[in-house]
Amino acid sequence: MVDADDLIYDDYAEDSQDEYSDVGDADYVDPGADEVDYMNAASDPDDDDEIDIMSDDDMFVDQGLSVSDVRKKPYEVDFKSLSIAMLEAAQKVQVEHIAGMFVVPPADAAVLLRHYHWNKERLIERYMDLPEQVKYEAGVLDNPDCPRLLTLSHFTCEVCYLSAEDCGGSMDTVSLACGHRYCIDCYSHYAQQKVREEGESRRIECMNEGCKLIVDEDTMSKLLPPGLMERYRILLDRTYVDDNNTLRWCPAPDCEMAVECHVTPKQLRTTVPSVRCDCSHWFCFGCGLAAHQPVICAIVKLWLKKCEDDSETANWISANTKECPKCNSTIEKNGGCNHMTCRKCRYEFCWICSGPWSEHGNNWYQCNRYDEKAGSDARDSQAKSRASLERYLHYFNRFANHEQSARLDRDLYRRIEKKMDEMQVTSDLTWIEVQFLRKAADTLTECRMTLKWTYCMVYYLQRNNMTELFEDNQRDLERAVEELSGQLEMPIERETIPALRQKVTDLTVYVQKRREILLTDTANGYQEDRWQWNLRAEKDVKNVTVFGAGLMGAGIAQVLSDVGKYNVTLSDVTDKALQNGQAIITKSLQRIAKKKMADKSAEEQEQFVKGVVDSIKVTTDPAEAVESTDLVIEAIIENLKIKKELFGLLDSKAPKDAVFASNTSSLNIAEIAEATSRRSQFGGFHAFNPVPQMKLIEIVRTKETSDETWQTLMDVAKKMGKVPVTCIDSPGFIVNRLLVPYQLEAIRLVERGVASPEDVDTAMKLGAGYPMGPFELADLVGLDTLEHIAQGWRESCAGTEHMPEAYVQESPMLTNLIKEGKLGRKTADKGGFYQYNKK
Predict the structure, then answer these.
(1) What is the separation of C-alpha 417 from the centre of its chain, rounded to a whole number of angstroms?
(2) 517 and 429 in a common domain
(3) What is the distance of C-alpha 591 from the center of its chain?
């Protein structure tokens, strides 16, 4: 069960080796279009869900485009259709504003705004604090002494190697403010290739390798022919809409309109923003699909994925076949005998209970071991698969039926037009007076689509009184819709026309009222937090791959295998690393066996250890490691570049529905996920060292992490026997975010002469109840690790709302200890804050 608010909506040590191991521990929907995750705010990692990208209320007012603040019904949202001309005018207003405020050319102002995804407020805030840094990051440089176009008599282009002499004594050249100058032909060819072949517009960089300056619109106008310049401007318009959370292109074919709707990603947890473009197409502003009231986008995404993939085929197989208890090969029974022999591994077992056949005596055709523990899990799994399939088909058949009926009702329009003509001929009704039939047909189609999506919603609702109330409203609407549909199918007879008109008109009003009641109650339910979602088991994880055979990776693999619920694969780049990982697991299991199996013989303890170690498949081939995986957990070296390279490779090898997770303790999850095409299937899974003993796992959600992915990671953590906590993707997550600044502040106390390390530790243990003081903990973790995390934060996020700069200020005392090689317990001969191995 998941509350509505939950919807969508360790080790520090580093490995200095080049290994993975962290040894320190419907309508108009284009099926080919890229799916836009509605949780995705701007792609800038610094953007905030709560900040409206176009929050300047006067932005469209200047263009006469103000959006009404009046919402007629609880389930309606305010929206406005915008033409290309309106969009360009809106961009011009913002560019002129920034150009005047920052005193920069309009072309540079446009580059700055595009870099900040047209979030004017965030740009102004950053620019006022660090103007030069903002310009550098955006690709803007002030250099009025460097002309863009220049004709030179002494110049050789470093691309084509033609000189001015080769061109008749002079050569037209182009340069940005950086001074990297090339001939206009080469620069023009470069710009045309970027626009025509790559479809790029916003981030076309200087030709010089490594230079990040952006080619502005004014310069592009001198490099592109008129036709291609028009395409360039169209691409810029598209980026303006794509970057804006309050704008979305209408998905109807050949429509060039955009729709403005001020619904934030966070509001999509409780709002279904159905909007209507001026082209008459209704669609959901949140996800771009055809309108799907009353169910929110997150649930729609889960439902469509469930309907489109082959999960139900898998359910049928699970309900009608069984897996070999030993090798997991799928077996279908083709005779009456319950004695089964797996053709792959030759294991003999009982079809009824899945227990070993050797324990069944001579009961060849009848199993008398119904309660046998060895077979109970298999029987439960099969029964659950059957029940899951039947439940899914119940709702899917009704969903599909209303979808088909809605299509058939569209054919009704042709018959309605014929009936309208008949009525005008056989009665004294005018063309206006027979429009009640068209109105009824429109209402019927609209209500069919609403009913269709109610079955999607109720499939995921937890069973309770609120769900029963929803189903009552659903039933009343369905009955009214079927009655109206029947009336529209009635033959036209002259003497019954007045009665038919009255009946159809009354029914149309009633059907509209029933739909409004259902949608209003559902919308109020979202706001009142009445709807409880059941998203469990949507992703059935059986195969888990762990990358990195260091302390963390080996520990995660050990726990996953030991719980007996997963097929675990451990992967690293070398056989040596894998052998080291197996040794770590063996040593850990031996300690566990000695403690928890003290009453068992040494042989039994050894068998336990060997059984877990042997159950973990090891491989250095990443493609083999993920070929059938359901979940990938990465626990390699804390290096963003290496992590992204690994996930980029795995993204092309792993099944499309596999979930990816990183065990990073300090890096930005969203940045790592950028290397993949499955950002909604990506999250953080931060365990703590030693994994077998530590109960906590931090589940980290980016702005794009889907509810299904979050629920999958939560379920895996719980099945591992851990306690998962959820946090957003911010520096240090929860534990490290509090722990590292706490340790650094303790060091600063000593630096200022406030107290000694010993007294600080004693005070925190006795006064705050901490099991260890900050200096004892720093020595245990490693001083270099502490500084590595702090330095990473200083370089990436210090000074932001999530990490005040003072919290990670560099410590001279810590720096000096590290230079002297005093890293804590890992350098026992030298010590750290304390001395160890004293003689």
Answers:
(1) 47
(2) yes
(3) 39
Cα–Cα distance measured from residue 34 to residue 601, given in angstroms and rounded to the nearest whole number: 59
pLDDT above 90: residue 106: yes
pLDDT in tens, 626-640: 998 999 999 999 889
Residues 609 and 750 in one domain: no
Higher pLDDT, 70 or 589: 589
- Is there a domain that residue 425 lies in? yes
Cβ atoms of 585 and 613 within 8 Å: the answer is yes
Residues 740, 724 share a domain: no
pLDDT band at 329 (very low <50, low <70, confident <90, very high): low
Per-residue confidence (pLDDT) for residue 14, from 0 to 100: 35
Task: For residue 709, give the nearest of 21, 36, 37 by alpha carbon.
Answer: 37
- Among 728, 758, 785, the domain-final residue is 728
- Does the CA dihedral 45-51-55-56 come out positive or negative? negative
| End-to-end alpha carbon distance in the chain | 58
Q: Is the pLDDT of residue 58 over 50?
A: no
With cut-offs at 50, 70 and 90, classify the pLDDT of residue 145.
confident
pLDDT exceeds cutoff 80 at 731: yes
With tokens 């002259």, the residue in question is 494
Catalytic residue among 255, 337, 342, 345: 337
pLDDT in tens, 437-453: 788 888 988 999 999 99
Q: Is 782 found in the same domain as 666?
A: no
Q: Name the residue range of residue 334's domain.
A: 324-371
Tell me how far apart the alpha carbons of residues 423 and 425 are, in angstroms, rounded to a whole number. Answer: 5
Count of domains forming the chain: 5
Confidence of residue 380 (pLDDT cuts 50, 70, 90): low
Contact 42, 117 (CB under 8 A): yes
Q: Which two tokens stand for residue 712?
A: 């999958």
How far is it, in rounded angstroms, from Cα 382 to Cα 143?
72
**Residue 435 is part of a domain; what is its CATH number?**
1.20.120.1750
**How many angstroms separate the CA atoms of 395 and 389, rounded?**
10
337 part of the active site? yes
Burial 427-450 (b: 16+ CB within 10 A, else e): bebeeeebebbeebbebbbbbbbb
- Give me the torsion for CA of 240, 242, 247, 253, rounded to 10°: 110
List all residues 6 or more positions away from 655 whose beta carbon is below 8 Å from its beta carbon.
Answer: 626, 627, 628, 629, 630
